Prior knowledge:
Number of strands: 12
Low-confidence stretches: none
Strand content: 5-15%
Shape: globular
Mean pLDDT: 95
Helix content: 40-55%
Largest sheet: 8 strands, parallel, barrel
Distance between the termini: 50 Å
Amino acid sequence: xxxVIFGLCGETLTSDERAFFAEADPAxxxxxxxxxxxxxxLRALTDDLRALHGRxxxxxMIDQEGGRVARMQxxxxxxFPPGALFDRLYEIAPSSAIAAARANARAIAATLAEVGIxxxxxxxxxxxxDGASDIMGDRTLGAEPMRVAALGRAVIxxxxxxxxxxxxxxxxxxxxxxxxxxxxxxxxTADEDALAIDxxxxxxxxxxxxxxxAHVVYTAWDPDLPASLSPSVIDTIIRGRIGFxxxxxSDDLDMKALKGSIPELAAATVAAGCDLALNCWGRMxxxxxxxxxxxxxxxxxxxxxxxxxxxxxxxxxxxxxxxxLATRDALLAMVPA
Length: 337
């Protein structure tokens, strides 16, 4: 198995993808709008991936946050609100906000589980800071670390109740970035005391099964390398100070924050201490190059992958989707328009 998550180019596997994926045996896959038509097509695609590898617990992930980050969209699937709405409710009624976040996460997970998706890149534990780039903005769960942690835990637990594994992101914190890491490299110059605020939600949820790194330079910890490529940040901060021992993946290697060829970046993230490299765009040349440069997945990384996927709960007969959405909406109705 190669320690990488690959994207796909379309709505079904091409013959080239099928042959390459069978040989390379990536740890998992990530899906985007280009891969999605409707329930029947999406379920057939995820079933095809599982059959290709003979792994019922195959990591198949998606970014289904709600708000402006939603790969599965109306009218086929419900619309989901951004994280900031739960933060606004928390200001009025904390317990209601936690219940709403949990119901919303269960509803998201129910729609994912139905089509065979096993992992969602949610929740964001980035603590929002005034003046920072809007790339986080209303996607975040707030500006107060323990509120972010409380809502984030509700999301993780809600996803798990419907058989979907959550990902805490973006470690060790993207909330101070002044530029969008999709387009350029953010450099955070905050000192150790300030950065303790960013670490706090991740420390509170350090037992989460999966985490994702940030393509951000933190000069207090490593003035030269972004967290995804920094052995120091991954070992000392993420594994050490945060205490995270779950499966650690990079953010997307195609983001413009990183410089270099995609295969070289994949190898560098794994060498730095990420368990898995994330390559989203399904470009065959890049994927072949990655498979050629990456070693086989390490023993510890494979154990973390297996633990993460084993954390999926057997799904009991829970509330139907309409009831979960109604519960969420009744609670969110408390938020002033």
